[in-house]
Amino acid sequence: MAKIHMVLQGKGGVGKSFIASTLAQHQYAKGKKPLCIDTDPVNATFKGFKKLNVRQINVMSGDEIDPRKFDDLIELIAGTQTDVVIDNGASTFVPMSHYLISNQIPALLTDMGHELIVHTVITGSQALMDTLTGFKNLVSQFPDETRFVVWLNPYWGAITMDGKRFEEMKIYLDNKSRVSAIIRIPEYKADTFGKDLSEILQAKLTFSEALESKTLPIMVRQRLTIIKKQLFTSIESVAAVLT
Q1: How many CB atoms lie within 10 A of CB 4?
Q2: pTM value?
Q3: pLDDT confidence tier of residue 56, bands split at 50, 70 and 90
């Protein structure tokens, strides 16, 4: 059975492509070659990671899903023998979610012998309410058998509301049974770890490419090594869900 990892969140700039690239890099580190797909018609950030061999499939026609283009996506997934990582843009969130549900894609993937895992992001500050709403909409609309993995990304600020962490919030407690795993991205100091990570993401470099680069200072590579280990360890901690 292949795992179809789909990253969905309606808020832009919250780390969807970062999560997709990290999932793919973790699989590559394990000797696997996942099928990587970017469906974002506006900002195909995931596609920029050349080392991950990401295929771009624009499933949109205007503001709606193009059924024929989506058919091509399903055909590609149907024939895969490896896991799949799909990054979706904020602009495709509503039509993609609706199309997946109305066409019973989760059940179809199950019939194919695959399993859909929806990854979504919660981040802090002004984006907190938007990402919480996106999470709530996803779990309320997708069928019960769909697995959800929530990534907590503190890049924009602490993920707290009225002094409560995400795991203490009513929106999580009401939907706790739908969440198979929570992955917490560490809060990185902006002028060191955060800056180093931001720069390789902007350059569309994988951790391996950055660590092999002789042009990066030793301490930059050291910090990136620590970040990579932290992220991969977090993924390994929920391996029972992801593999």
Answers
A1: 22
A2: 0.95
A3: very high
